[in-house]
Amino acid sequence: MPILNTSEILETIRMIDRENLDIRTITMGISLLDCACDDIRALALRVYDRVCTRAEHLVRVGCEIEDRYGIPIVNKRVSVTPVSLVAGGTNAASYVPVAQAMDRAAHTLGIDFIGGFSALVHKGIAKADAVLIKSIPEALAQTQYVCASVNIGSTRAGINMDAVKIMGVCIKEAAEKTAKSGGIGAAKLVAFCNAVEDNPFMAGAFHGPGEADCVINVGVSGPGVVKSALARLQGAPFDVVAETIKKTAFRVTRMGQLVAREASRRLNVPFGIVDLSLAPTPAMGDSVAHILTEMGLEYAGAPGSTAALALLNDAVKKGGVMASGHVGGLSGAFIPVSEDAGMIEAAQAGALTLEKLEAMTCVCSVGLDMIAIPGDTGAATIAGILADEAAIGMINNKTTAVRIIAAPGKRAGDIVEFGGLLGIAPVMPVNTYSCEAFIARGGRIPAPIHSLRN
Amino acid sequence: MNRAIVTVLGRDKVGIIATVSGRLSELNINILDITQTVMDENIFVMLMLVDISKKTLSFHEVKEALRQLGEAHGVSVRIQSEEIFDSMHKV
What we know:
The structure holds two protein chains of two kinds. Chain A is an alpha/beta fold. Chain A has two domains: 29-193, Anaerobic Ribonucleotide-triphosphate Reductase Large Chain; 218-445, Anaerobic Ribonucleotide-triphosphate Reductase Large Chain. Chain A has helices at residues 6-17, 40-54, 58-69, 84-87, 96-109, 127-142, 161-176, 184-187, 223-231, 238-267, 289-294, 305-321, 341-349, 354-360, 379-396, 436-440; strands at residues 23-30, 73-80, 113-120, 146-154, 158-160, 189-193, 214-220, 271-275, 277-278, 332-333, 367-374, 400-407, 415-417, 424-426, 444-445. In chain A, strands 1, 2, 3, 4, 5, 6, 7, 8, 11, 12 and 15 form an eleven-stranded mixed β-sheet that branches. In chain A, helix 2 runs parallel beside helix 5 and helix 3 crosses helix 10 (238-267). The longest helix of chain A has 30 residues, at 238-267. Chain B is an alpha+beta fold. Helices cover 35% and strands 38% of the residues of chain B. Chain B has a four-stranded antiparallel β-sheet, sandwiched between helices. The longest helix of chain B has 14 residues, at 59-72. Chains A and B meet through helix 1, helix 3 and helix 10 of A and strand 1, strand 2, strand 3, helix 2 and strand 4 of B.
C-alpha cells in the first residue's frame, strides 16, 4: 500500500527550497584520443564535432531531470581528454585553435564549462605538454567556457619542479592577459598534485586516459543542508555532530546517485562516479565556512578550523560512500575563498590567512582555491606557493591544487569581482620573502617513501 | 505505474483540496493516497501520491499547470517524481 511520509517529504522540500540543496554538476567526460591527427585545424574540427555529437542531449536531459525531481542542477559541463595527449602529432606551435573549438562547442551545446585543456607533467614535460602550457594564457583569454589544468606532481612520481617553475609564470600570465576582467583567466586554471581522472568539478575536470569513450560523472553539493542540520544541535558533542553530518551527506549523495543513474540512462552513456563534495557558492546559506562557524568558531580560520574541517571532510565521505555505487572525483569539502560567503567574510576580517588555508588543505579537498593575491606577486612566489601545496598532496597521498589569481593592479585588501559561481575575492596578502633561488633550481623532488610514516 | 508526489503548501483557506484535485482530474492524474494537515500559524500542508501514467500532458506541462494553479490561489503546488523521496530516505 502506498504510504505518504509527511516528515520525509517535507524535509526533502525544505532542503531544496531553503537550504540550497542542489546537484552542482552533471559532467560528461568525452574521450578525444581517436581525434588525434597531424593538422591543427583538422584536429580542432574533429574536437568540435566530437564534443557536439556526444553531448548533444546533455543540457536537455539535465533540464528534464531537474523538472522531474524538482532538484536544481546548477551546471551541465563537459570534460575532455587532456588536449596535450591528442595535439602532439600536429607540430603546431600553439594549441589555441583547439581551445577555441572547445569554446565554440560549449557555446553550441549551451553548457556552462568545458574542461580538459590540460597536460599531465608530473614526471616530465613532453614537447606537446610544453606547447600546451605555453598556450594556456592565450587560450583562456580568447575563450569563455574553457578551463585548463596541469598536473605537476604525484605521490608516485614526486614533484616536477621544472613544471612548477613554468606554472608560476603561466598562472601569472593567465591573470595578466585577462586584466580587464580582474584576471579571470587564472580563475579557470588549476595546477594539481595527484590529479584525478574522473573529477566533475571545474576548473580541474579532464577526462583521464584511463577512462572509457564517454561517461557521466555527477558532483553533488549541499553545505547549507549540513549547516542547518548542525544549527539544530546547539552545544552537542562532536560525536553527535559527526553522526549528523554523516546522515545528511548520505541523503545528499543519494540524490546525486539518483540523478547520475537517470542521466546515464537517458543519455545512454555509462555512469562513472558521484563526487561526494560539499561545494559552496557565493549565495548566502551555501557556505562551507558557515558550517565551521556553526560548530563554534567565530570565523573560518580561527584556531580549531583545521580540526573542524577534518571532522567535516571525513564525515561527508563516511556518509556519502554508502549512498553511491561508485564514488570518485575529489570527494570532500571544498574551501574556495571567492566562492564562499563565509570565507569571504573571514578573509576580510583578517581571520583567514593564506597560511591557515594551506594548513586546512591538508585535511580536505582540494587546495588553495580561488584566492586572489596582489597583482605584483612574482611568478617565483606563485611557484613557491604551488610547490608547498603540491608537497602536501605528494606526502599525504591526496589531491591538492592551486587556483590563485594574481589580480592585476590590485593590492592586499582590494576586492576582485568575477561574478556568477566564481564570486568575489578579497585580495589576500602573500609572504613577500623571496623563493627565487629555490624555484630557479628546477629538476624534480623525488617521490616520497611510504614506510616510516610520521 | 508511474508515481509522483504532489505537495501543496500555503495559508489555509476554503476549497484548496477541491481545487487541486479538480485540476488533477482534468489532467487524468489519479490520486492514490492523500494526507493533509494544518500546521502552526495556519499553514496548510497537503501531500498526494498520484499515478501519472495516463496523464494527458507532458511532465513539464503538468508541473507548469499546477504551478500556475497554485499561484492563482496563493499556495505553492509542486509535483516531483516519487523516486527522489524514496532514494533520499530509504537505504
